Amino acid sequence: MELLKERILKDGLVKPGNVLKVDSFLNHQMDIDLINEIGKEFRRRFPSDKITKILTIEASGIGIACIAAQYFNVPVVFAKKSQSINLDGDIYSTKVESFTHKKVYDVILSKKFLDSNDHVLVIDDFLANGCALMGLIDLIHKAGATIEGAGIVIEKGFQQGGDMIREKGIHLESLAIIKSMTDTSLEFE
Amino acid sequence: MELLKERILKDGLVKPGNVLKVDSFLNHQMDIDLINEIGKEFRRRFPSDKITKILTIEASGIGIACIAAQYFNVPVVFAKKSQSINLDGDIYSTKVESFTHKKVYDVILSKKFLDSNDHVLVIDDFLANGCALMGLIDLIHKAGATIEGAGIVIEKGFQQGGDMIREKGIHLESLAIIKSMTDTSLEFE
């Protein structure tokens, strides 16, 4: 998606440890016009009328999923990163290792909001080592629901997550795939 | 807002400890059509053209803020609940006590995304004791920005947060204010 790639080149910052900061438009401050274009592009790439739910994970996936959901006319469900007293005991849970925070956390989803009738599109901002996405896929499997695909805004193509997901036969669409990045250059696939 | 009140009466659940669960449409599963109506209503109640940013706090405020932002044509900035290695050291921070999780956490915001030129509308899903909203107001003060108002989806009118905010002279609009709730009844103001 050219508009997105141009924006990453213009406003993205590469930090030590293979960290790409896009916090001025995607995951701290959010450019809603850009995210609307991202939502439309996800719809173009996943035209199926079977999709019943969009699943994402808190926090930065939520805004993107909500804007995108307007083009799919389905509800958003977001998985939560730790037990809350506001959630029933009746939950699916999985463990996810965070690349950013260097720790393992529990990811939970109320059983009420995903079942075997659901056809699920996963949406998230980043795909790197694939841990968050694998966790969401595990939750979908536990619910007996069908995965229609995964839509990612930015994939770090030099990490293994994308290959891992594609090898499972999952329809993965990443709107920008980064081939390599250093302090002074950033190349897309 | 009648549509919202009807939905709370239909799908909200009161749990022990004055917890109102609206997780089937607002803060775990999200009904995007309803949230679009909520966004339009916030715009109707805050018609000012001075607003430059919508500020919210992760996680459940983000989706509501992003959908609402489409009616304001401004970016969303969301405050984060703990230090992340993806954030610069150059941050505003404040402490917030969580009613739901019974703990105090740090809330942070990159200085890049809020300054003295900004006129800020705060949006969040709940207002109860007011701790989260007071934290966001503190961040706005630290940035030297102007508070244009606060838009809340559900206010627990029997807790002190709403009065505390109104006494500060802040333009507070809550789309549903709960006067009282028990296992068997829920009344709005």
From TrEMBL, chains A, B:
BP terms from Gene Ontology: purine ribonucleoside salvage; xanthine metabolic process; XMP salvage
Annotated catalysed reactions: XMP + diphosphate = xanthine + 5-phospho-alpha-D-ribose 1-diphosphate
Domain (Phosphoribosyltransferase) ranges: 23-157
Protein's cellular compartments: Cytoplasm
Binding site for xanthine: L20, N27, K156
Entry's Gene Ontology cellular component terms: cytoplasm
Pathway where it operates: Purine metabolism; XMP biosynthesis via salvage pathway; XMP from xanthine: step 1/1
InterPro entries reported in the protein's UniProt record: PRTase-like, PRTase_dom, Pur/Pyrimidine_PRTase, Xanthine_PRibTrfase
Single Gene Ontology MF annotation: xanthine phosphoribosyltransferase activity
Transmembrane segments: none
Keyword terms of this UniProt record: Cytoplasm, Glycosyltransferase, Purine salvage, Transferase
CDD domains named among the record's database cross-references: PRTases_typeI
Recorded coiled-coil stretches: none
E.C. numbers: 2.4.2.22
Gene3D superfamilies: 3.40.50.2020
Domain of life: Bacteria
Main location, first listed in the record: cytoplasm
Chain residues that bind 5-phospho-alpha-D-ribose 1-diphosphate: A128, N129, G130, C131, A132
Class in the EC hierarchy, top level: transferase
Function of the protein: Converts the preformed base xanthine, a product of nucleic acid breakdown, to xanthosine 5'-monophosphate (XMP), so it can be reused for RNA or DNA synthesis.
Subunit relationships: Homodimer.
Family membership noted in the UniProt record: Belongs to the purine/pyrimidine phosphoribosyltransferase family. Xpt subfamily.
Annotated protein name in UniProt: Xanthine phosphoribosyltransferase
